Amino acid sequence: MAGLKSLAKDTAIYGLSSIIGRFLNYLLVPLYTIKLSAASGGYGVVTNIYAMTALLLVVLTYGMETGFFRFANKKDEDPLKVYSSTLITVGGSSVLFVLFCLVFIEPIAGFLGYADHPEYIAMMAIVVALDAFQCIPFAYLRYRKRPIKFAGIKMMFVVSNILLNLFFLVLCPWLNAHSPQAISWFYDSGYGVGYVFLANLICTSLQMLFFVNELRGFQYVLDKALIKRMFSYSFPILILGLAGILNQTVDKIIFPFLLDNANEARVQLGIYGAASKIAMVMAMFTQAFRYAYEPFVFGKEKDGDSRQTYASAMKFFVIFTLLAFLAVMFYMDILRYIITPDYWPGLKVVPIVMAAEMFMGVYFNLSFWYKLIDETRWGAYFSLIGCVIIVLLNIIFVPVYGYIACAWAGLAGYFTVTILSYFVGQKKYPINYDLKGIGLYVLLAAVLYVASVFIVPENVVFRLLFRTGLLFVFIAFIVKKDLPLKQIPLLNHFIK
Known about the structure:
Elements: H1 2-26, H2 28-35, H3 42-61, H4 64-72, H5 79-103, H6 105-112, H7 118-143, H8 147-178, H9 194-207, H10 224-258, H11 262-278, H12 280-301, H13 307-330, H14 332-335, H15 350-366, H16 368-372, H17 377-401, H18 404-428, H19 435-454, H20 460-481, H21 489-495
Helix pairs in contact: 1-8, 1-12, 3-7, 3-10, 3-11, 4-5, 4-7, 4-10, 5-7, 6-7, 7-9, 8-9, 10-11, 10-17, 10-18, 12-13, 12-15, 13-15, 13-19, 13-20, 15-18, 17-18, 19-20
């Protein structure tokens, strides 16, 4: 139970930074949708390029983040040697990547459809290389159980990125209209989307300054034999990561190639990308849980078999992701104002994307069985299967149904890999999950959601009150079944 309390504490810290950071980033969504109208396709460019950078980040870290946790926690390994070897390896490959992109920037930009703006690709190539390298000191902070500094750096990036976006997209246009001579030496009113990428580049570069202490105070050693063993362990995770990130981004990457009209593709992609942002509440919780759960699991493995702890963690993960799903869907009348009305046609994808995110989180929790027994190839098999499903469904249905097909393809892919991972995992590393309890929560959430869909009071206030009542039914069930208030010390004093 102490282990779960420690996990809950770290999840709260990581989660707070993640949730606040994502919430603050939400401020950029209405800004982008105001400054980049749906018809312009500008937000489609942002969605497309950021999807590619997410994929490249997985390639450039090639599973070494998880490999670092695994080998740093081994009793016969020197954690600092593991850390320094990982830094040198990932840093070296990131530098080579940047050099390659800059040398061949023109053909790369032309192939991706940005021949008019190759600097977009150049800026994001540098950003993704820096991000890849910074993943290792971030992992080191998690290994050293320093969630406060981890969260602080993440928050610094988010805040500075927001401020720079406001500067380039709001303040500069105002100054350009009222006092153009003040900014004419650096500001181009027609550059638009480019300033989004420039702000990211500046903030990512500044973030390096906060890792000074994590990059000094030890001897840099490249243990080739160690790296070879780490890469052997991590390579299947790279395949897993590639397939996993493709599951999340492949629709946004290939979308412009699936429609004949390039401008229409960017318009649709912008609507889909903006609407999907509302569903990212689920991703916030999943990411926060992942940051705390990965070092927790590998650390617990040192203490012996902790399968019951893993089973309990899975149950509570499902409970609170269902709570997040219901909260978002019940308050959609409010949350839709995160984006401007010309993007509202895309709101129909939100429940589908949130369901896919939930299955992705469950799959992540299930994935530890093959990491703990060093059979990571299974993760690669599952994710490749999911990726093939998603790609095929996108290729077949996007030209016919547009971006709604992207959402359903993602859900189908994650549902499939979750089921496969569960059944194979029960044979290889059996864990007694409380399927009956989890199933009961899923059933209740489904009933409440269906009730909110079919019972829709015309008055928005009554509608929100009704849905709030439904949400309290779910919360009351959680308290009654798994979180008795008497177990909370502060409340216990009043409930006796």
